[in-house]
Amino acid sequence: MSQAYQHVKYLAEKIGPRGSCTAQERKAAEYIKVQLVKMGFEAKWEQFKSVTSFSWVFGLIYLFFVMAAFIYPSSPYLGFIITFLAFLGFYFETNTFPLFSKLIPKKSSQNIIAEVPARSKTIRNVIIIAHYDSSRSALSFSPKMVKNFRTTYLLMVVAMGLQVFFYALGVFSSLPQQLLWILSLPSAVYLAFTLFLLIHRELFGEYTPGANDNASGVAVLLEVAKVLARFPLLTTTVTLVATGAEESGTNGALDFLRRHQPSKETFIINLDNLGSGNLTAITHEGILGTKPSSPELLSLAEHTVEEKNLKLKFRPYNLLTTDGTVFIKRKYPVMTVMAFDQEGLLPNWHWPTDRVEFVKPENLEDAKELVLGIIRKL
After folding, report:
1. Could you report the per-residue pLDDT of 235-269, keeping only the tens digit for each?
2. Which of 262, 266, 252 minimizes the C-alpha distance to 297?
3. Please, where are the H alpha helices in the chain?
4. What are the φ/ψ torsions at residue 144 (nearest 5 degrees)?
5. pLDDT digit string (tens) for 271-295?
6. Thinking of the domain 3-52+107-137+206-377, which architecture would CATH place it in?
7. 215-233: per-residue pLDDT in tens?
8. CB atoms within 10 A of CB 355
């Protein structure tokens, strides 16, 4: 059994489900820190406050839309203002710029950070990042529904947009407000259903073992760290970041960014969901408006694949946010490494079947060689 696979097994089975801001997440952080210290690193423990679930943030936004549907007939201006602010909050939160999440009660999470200084003068900096918490399951991620995740998500965005549009017409035009309110009702009903799904998730969803998402990424990060501990790069300083609370809204990456403010020339390699399926370099990332990944990192990935005879695909990713999204939305040079099944889905994504037996050791080894090849070529 490879050491990378042992890391996955320990995180997913020995520690088990690791919900954001939970005691199990903290145990995972302790394990990662111990592994880095064993390699000779001075691993830092950086604690921060985070919301415990994205359900609270987006549930509040959808609740505003539902409330506006009741308020609008008696107070059109107030109904419009509520929906407009809710849509604005949705846009910012989706693009990893916290707004409404600042109103939500928070608990403690933590990042684990280790630095590998360049052997000579530092010319460039690289951050390798992977989150170690696991998600709560939800009906929208069930095997029957997850295939339509992107479609249902876009329908939800359209529903919000239509409700804002109809209410704006009612306020700023001479069209009959009652008719416009009736036309907006299907959107409000759809958003009420979406709110119900989030409530159901918090009441009945269970934290997943998180073997693929994302013990696999952490395992690769640790194996890359082991190699760098023995053979640091000549002119490149590498920072290794294991983030907490990614599944509740990329909060670990956001805290790292706020605290450390790396220069915009820093390269970011994000490792997420890469243990099962076809190893893939993400070319564009973002759920609402994709941003291109770093051309230089993608080019180096191509050269590494040819040199090491690895199997690697290239494709965009436009589902939920990752730690990479945090940086790519702020114009950092980023490349996320993931793996997808034959249908273009993340295997066992946010579902109780995200277990160790579905993680392929060869994926972990190939991902490690890919990352090492890229940073050495830098």
Report:
1. 999 999 999 999 999 999 999 999 999 999 999 99
2. 266
3. 3-9, 23-38, 54-71, 76-94, 149-172, 177-204, 216-230, 251-260, 295-308, 323-328, 361-377
4. -80, -30
5. 999 999 999 999 999 998 899 999 9
6. 3-Layer(aba) Sandwich (3.40)
7. 999 999 999 999 999 999 9
8. 17
Dist. CA 267–CA 282, nearest whole Å? 14
Structure-block tokens of residue 361 = 């050791």
Cβ-based burial of 343 (10 A; exposed 0-12, middle 13-18, buried ≥19): exposed
CB 281 within 8 A of CB 335: yes
For the chain, which residues make up each domain, given as ranges? 3-52+107-137+206-377, 56-99+142-204
Structure tokens at 348: 């066992």
Q: Which of 306, 63, 11, 13 is nearest to 193 (CA)?
A: 63
Give exposure, 268-288, as e/b (b: 16+ Cβ within 10 Å): bbbbbbbbbbbbbbbbebbbe
| 181-190 residues labelled b (16+ CB within 10 A) or e (exposed) | bebbeebbeb
Give whole-number Cα distances, 32 to 110, 211, 242, in Å.
11, 15, 8
Would strands 278-285 and 291-292 be described as parallel, antiparallel, or unpaired? Answer: antiparallel
The phi and psi torsions of 312 (rounded to 5 degrees) equal: -145, 135
pLDDT tens profile 36-92: 999 999 999 999 999 999 999 999 999 999 999 999 999 999 999 999 999 999 999
pLDDT at 1: 64
Closest C-alpha among 286, 236, 264 to residue 95: 286
What's the CA gap between 374 and 378, in Å, rounded?
A: 6
> Does the predicted model carry a pTM greater than 0.90?
yes
Residue 12 contacts residue 210 (beta carbons within 8 Å)? yes
Q: Is 314 helix (H, G, I), strand (E, B) or coil?
A: strand
CA 167, CA 248: separation in Å to the nearest integer?
31
HSE value, Cβ hemisphere, 13 Å, CA-based, for 182: 5
The secondary structure of residue 207, as a DSSP letter, is B
User: Measured between alpha carbons, how far is 250 from 324 in angstroms, rounded to an integer?
Assistant: 9
